[in-house]
Specification:
Elements lengths: L9 H28 L3 H23 L3 H32 L6 H33 L7 H4 L1
Helix pairs in contact: 1-2, 2-3, 2-4, 3-4
Length: about 150
């Protein structure tokens, strides 16, 4: 199902592509460091969410004229931002309340819990959009008196 190009998405797609190009190069640099110098948690915590953002950006650049593609990318991005932000905020505030003298709480919140929430949100976001589409497409099961006779 292709939408009619009522809005020209080309300019936004070019801007997103210019954003995704250096981001993809940075993610590939982090991945090459992982391969050549061994596994590192910090590079993974930074590289995986950035790789997902680069992937979603390229997905929009390639399929930006398709309304369904735009909706999936937007749902995944919004889900990632929401769950990642909520997870990082709760971990940050929770660590401050439970262990006020610890200085590792913010680091754990922003380097571990936030990226894990972001990845979970990106994975769950398209399913939410799919469920919304499923509800819109479902036929009505209510029958009128004329339909019953």
């Amino acid at each position: 199902m292709r939408c009619h190009p009522s809005r020209n998405w080309m300019g936004l797609r070019i801007a997103v592509g210019l954003f995704a190009l250096p981001l993809s190069a940075f993610v590939l640099l982090l991945a090459s460091k992982q391969v050549h110098h061994g596994f590192d948690w910090v590079h993974t915590a930074v590289g995986v969410p950035m790789g997902i953002v680069a992937y979603l950006s390229w997905q929009f650049v390639v399929g930006g004229n398709d309304a369904i593609c735009r909706r999936k990318v937007a749902s995944a991005g919004l889900g990632g931002i929401l769950l990642g932000g909520i997870g990082a905020s709760l971990a940050f505030m929770g660590s401050a309340m439970l262990m006020p003298n610890s200085n590792l709480g913010p680091m754990v919140a922003f380097l571990i819990i936030g990226p894990i929430g972001f990845v979970a949100g990106v994975l769950l976001g398209p399913f939410v959009a799919l469920a919304e589409n499923f509800d819109e497409r479902a036929p009505s099961v209510s029958m009128t008196k004329q339909d019953q006779t």
